[in-house]
Amino acid sequence: MSNLRLPRKWDALLVYLVLEGASALFIQTAVTTYAIYYATTIGMDPLQLVLVGTLFETTIFLFEIPTGVVADVYSRRLSVIIGVGLLGIGLMIAGFIPVFAAILVSEILTGIGATFTSGATEAWITDEIGVERAGKAFVRAGQSRIICGMLGIILGVTLASISLNWPMAAAGLLLVGLTVFLILVMPERGFQRGPERQTWGTLIKTFRDGLRLIRLRPILMIVLAVEFIIAFHSEGFDHLWQKHILDTFTLPTLGSLNPVVWFGVIGVGANLLGLGLSEFIRRRANLDEPARALLMVNGLAALSILVFALAGNFALAIAAFWLMSALRQAADPISKAWLNQYADPRIRATLFSMRGQTGAIGEIVGGPPVGLIGSLVSVRAALMTSGFILMLALPWLAKNNTERSAVTQPTE
């Protein structure tokens, strides 16, 4: 195996930025038009479309903690490599085998792959460059994801105009290539591996250490509560905003281009604004007080959702959507920096995985009731409900700001 590796590993920060940017590029290529591919080429009905999303989130819920614990006990580098590889294989199956059963297998594999990377990636780069540099690295990675995500939108729309399965098939192949790249150049110098022979008892102990730390540091419960609320609001909004635009407005013509191109334009615009906002936050925001920044960002995001839902013209609705999307993109690295402040280095990946699992629970629980409101009342009412749900995070963030002085900082 060592013969496959380059003699010298790359700089960890550079590998991290390449990993985050390339992953965003490839995944965005796949997801920009996946719903059209599922509905038209495969012929999935609305119930099946909901089922695959629920299966994906349930897989994340079931595997987030075990994969995070494995990353803490064995190797974070290995966990990331496995995760990226599974994402690639899952997308290849979906792109090359256009049948419903294959899509179900794809959702399970990509869900497991996502859990292998979600906790381990942040813990790995923190080990390699230190907590002090990690906060700004998260912001830089967020910018990389935004830029590459825009390219992914363009690539996805271009490939879909040739054949609807091409975006997913190409993204899968590229992710497998990224896996090979990581095997060759990804370093792991800061991680202290445990004994060679591990048992599930050791894994369970590491997970229990995470729960114990949450009990000892109530601030972590606030962090997870906010993550739950944010995920709860996002699931309904993410599935309904496109329908709201299609049902409420007549899309302006773009020559002879397919109307789906408008959603590419909307996505690129949101990413451009998100890039500028994340750079502003990197330069001006105090990442030593991430909860204060999150209070402002999520408050503005909730108001933007309400404006989007109530807007009477297309331009105002798109402007509100762009602002909301940019704020959400900017919030993610700040949220990671917030959790990182209180994470014990020995179980950092487990805590990040708990964050991911909390988000998965929020999405699983939050989607159906908001969707039910959309069916029984209106899509506009459902979107407004999502905005009000997000506002529930604000008191928790305000509580953190008032109690921060009483929190004992962890010793790194």
Summarize this, please?
With 412 residues, the protein is mainly alpha-helical. It has 16 helices and no strands. α3 runs antiparallel to α4.
Protein architecture, described:
The protein has helices at 12-31, 34-41, 46-73, 76-96, 100-118, 120-129, 131-162, 166-185, 200-216, 218-248, 260-284, 290-310, 314-341, 348-376, 379-391, 393-403. With 412 residues, the protein is mainly alpha-helical. It folds into two domains: 8-184, MFS general substrate transporter like domains (Growth Hormone, Chain: A), CATH 1.20.1250.20; 206-402, Up-down Bundle (Growth Hormone, Chain: A). α4 runs antiparallel to α6. It is globular, with a radius of gyration of 21 Å. It starts with 11 loop residues before the first helix and ends in a 9-residue tail after the last helix.
How much helix is in the residues? over 70%
| Helical segment count | 16
CATH architecture of the largest domain: Up-down Bundle
CATH topology of the largest domain: Growth Hormone, Chain: A
Largest sheet: none
Task: List descriptors.
disordered C terminus, 81% helix, 2 domains, Growth Hormone, Chain: A, 16 helices, 412 residues, mainly alpha
Indicate the topology.
Elements: H1 12-31, H2 34-41, H3 46-73, H4 76-96, H5 100-118, H6 120-129, H7 131-162, H8 166-185, H9 200-216, H10 218-248, H11 260-284, H12 290-310, H13 314-341, H14 348-376, H15 379-391, H16 393-403
